[in-house]
Design brief:
Bound molecules: flavin-adenine dinucleotide
Largest sheet: 8 strands, mixed
Order of helices and strands: HHHHHEEEEEEEEHHHHH
Strand content: 5-15%
Distance between the termini: 38 Å
Length: about 375
């Protein structure tokens, strides 16, 4: 076990942090309020090789792993300018296509995903199924050589900036019962496909969408991997998603904690800095401890994933996602408290993170579903639902 990052990893961390610093929260804040995508930052991150750092070199990626993509996600968030679509486009979609796509599919999608010029969204959540993915009803039927898809998806992020959506459906043969996911690349301009922005209360640049698939006709090669590849193929993408969600939370927690500590050192109301009072310093210290623990679990999950241990990575990624979300929420909450009234003033850029940090307790998988997983699979307790 090695807790020291390689020189390459350190250099990547420094380079991403420098990019983030140039943009920062001042760049994000107005776009978060008006739900405008971070186009310039995404393009520059793509050109710098950060967006596709985990994808194969053969297709223009960096040839590194989830550990490195997590560095990118963490450092941008730590600079106050996280890119939500990193969680989806290179982490979920890029990984699934790399691992299960044909040579033609890899050639079609990976160079764009690696450079960032192509963004791919990911649609699994459905209005009626919710957390119970076994109940999804988006169905693909064969018609000649084509697939015809029908269904509804909800809360899908970034469809307006995406060239395609990776849709999790099921084939007609596996229409009911335990989910046998079939994954399809659906270009966003396909006839029969429509999407509508959901009016969200979350101050973040990326919008969420309701998707309507009505007899959407796709060619045979829109199917990625086996139509009956069971859950392993899906989780090859969902574990990276959880690792990247953890990275986002860890970075956001660092951002909030830095702001809080800087303020607590400077602000004086009783003739000495407010950080002198243990009523403020202890919660900040506790938040720091919990954030570091979450980061360690995120790094464990990424290392296991990159080492090919999907099972081990699954458990660690769930635990990392849980602890990073909780730690980040605590950091942001304590940062707001530390700044007093300024914690909710737009100028200081912390108040708007209250909801942003809170998203991670719900998405991409809720706190309760992670606890269900741990209770059932890590502790061997009976399933309650
Ligand atoms: C900002 C944002 C971005 C998102 N982006 C995407 C995206 O890009 N693609 C996509 O497919 N989805 C996306 N989602 C959807 C997200 O993954 C879901 O909201 C999440 O999985 C929870 O599903 P739900 O909202 O249907 O809640 P529900 O499943 O209805 O759950 C409601 C509540 O009940 C609890 N609950 C449900 N079942 C149980 C149980 N068995 N035991 C205990 N508690 C339970 C849940 O934990 C939750 O607290 C996004 C959501 C948000 C908020």
């Amino acid at each position: 076990m090695n807790f020291t990052e390689t020189d390459e990893q350190k250099a990547l961390r420094d380079a991403v942090a420098a990019l983030g610093k140039r943009y920062g929260h001042e760049y994000v804040a107005p776009r978060a309020r008006s739900h405008e995508p971070l186009t310039e930052l995404w393009a520059e991150a793509g050109k710098s090789g950060f967006v596709g750092v985990n994808l194969p070199e053969q297709y223009g990626g960096g040839g590194a792993g989830m550990y490195e993509l997590a560095i990118v996600g963490e450092e941008l968030n730590a600079a106050g300018c996280g890119l939500l679509m990193l969680v989806v486009s290179p982490a979920i979609c890029g990984t699934i296509i790399t691992r299960f796509g044909t040579d033609e599919q890899k050639q079609r999608w990976l160079p764009g995903l690696a450079s960032g010029e192509t963004i791919m969204a990911f649609g699994i959540t459905e209005p009626d199924a919710g957390s119970n993915s076994h109940n999804i009803t988006t169905t693909a039927r064969r018609d000649g050589g084509d697939w015809v898809l029908s269904g509804r998806k909800v809360f899908v992020s970034g469809v307006d900036v995406a060239e395609a959506v990776l849709i999790v459906g099921r084939t007609e043969d596996a229409k009911t019962g335990r989910l046998k996911p079939a994954l399809f690349t659906l270009p966003t301009d396909t006839p029969g496909f429509e999407y509508k922005a959901i009016d969200m209360d979350v101050p973040m640049p990326d919008k969420q969408f309701m998707l309507y698939l009505d007899d959407v006709r796709l060619p045979k090669d829109a199917l990625i991997g086996d139509e009956d590849a069971a859950l392993a193929q899906l989780f090859a993408g969902l574990n990276p998603e959880r690792i990247m969600a953890s990275a986002g939370s860890v970075g956001m927690g660092r951002y909030a904690l830095d702001k809080a500590v800087g303020y607590a050192r400077e602000r004086e109301v009783w003739g000495k800095p407010i950080g002198t009072h243990q009523g403020l310093s202890h919660p900040l210290a506790k938040a720091k401890v919990e954030l570091e623990l979450a980061k360690l679990m995120m790094q464990k999950a990424a290392s296991l994933y990159d080492g090919g241990d999907d099972m081990g990575a699954g458990e660690a990624a769930n635990m990392a996602k849980y602890s990073a979300a909780e730690a980040s929420i605590a950091c942001v909450d304590q940062a707001v408290q530390t700044l007093g009234g300024n914690g909710l003033a737009h100028e200081y850029g912390i108040g708007s993170l209250l909801i942003g940090a809170r998203v991670a307790r719900i998405a991409p998988v809720s706190r309760e579903m992670i606890l269900n997983f741990v209770a059932q699979f890590s502790l061997g307790l009976p399933k309650s639902y």
